[in-house]
Amino acid sequence: MDAKKLAIQNRMYQYSRAIYRSIKDLIDPYSPRETQLEYRRAVLAACEDTMERLARDPLYFAKPERALFQDIRRYFPIRAQAQVAWIVEEGVGAAVSFITEQIEAGAFDGGVPRCRATTRKGKPCQRTPLPERDYCPSHQHLADAAA
Ligand SMILES: [Zn+2]
């Protein structure tokens, strides 16, 4: 893995920890201690999964903040849910802005293969090409035309 990718992963890990730190104490304080520990581990794992998926596949992860909240809301009492939802939205939103900047800066070009076509807006197509091909399914006609 190259240094740029590693830097992105580290940064995503920090976003994940920041979200976890802000919500872990909102986990139901009246549950037995064992349950609380189990819930904390589950919440931490869900935060990390979300950030890993976002780092790996940012363009295909729709509404990551909603996905994360749905995954973890059951670990929090009703009265804490609005606060958890807000923290998750802010934290994931910050991570999404960061990833978007990285994509715009071209950090993702080296790793994941990208379709070689240019979109109507004049930007490089961000879709994944078909296996062994240079173009995504919607742009495959360009390869056929060239052949
Ligand atoms: Zn394409």
Give the tags:
147 residues; mainly alpha; 2 domains; 5 helices; 0% strand; elongated
Q: Could you explain how this protein is built, in words?
A:
58% of the residues lie in helices and 0% in strands. Helix 1 packs antiparallel against helix 4 (81-104) and helix 3 (64-72) runs antiparallel to helix 4 (81-104). The chain is mostly helical and 147 residues long. It folds into 2 domains: 3-104; 114-147, no CATH class. The protein is elongated. The protein binds zinc ion (ZN). Residues 115, 117, 125, 127, 135-136, 138-139 line the site of zinc ion.
Write the layout of secondary structure elements.
Layout: H1 3-23, H2 33-56, H3 64-72, H4 81-104, H5 140-146
Helix pairs in contact: 1-2, 1-4, 2-3, 3-4
Bound molecules: zinc ion (ZN).
| Largest sheet properties | none
Oligomeric state, counting identical vs distinct chains: single chain
For the terminal residues, how far apart are their CA atoms? Answer: 34 Å
Classify the secondary structure makeup into a structural class: mainly alpha
Helix/strand order: HHHHH
Small-molecule binders here are: zinc ion
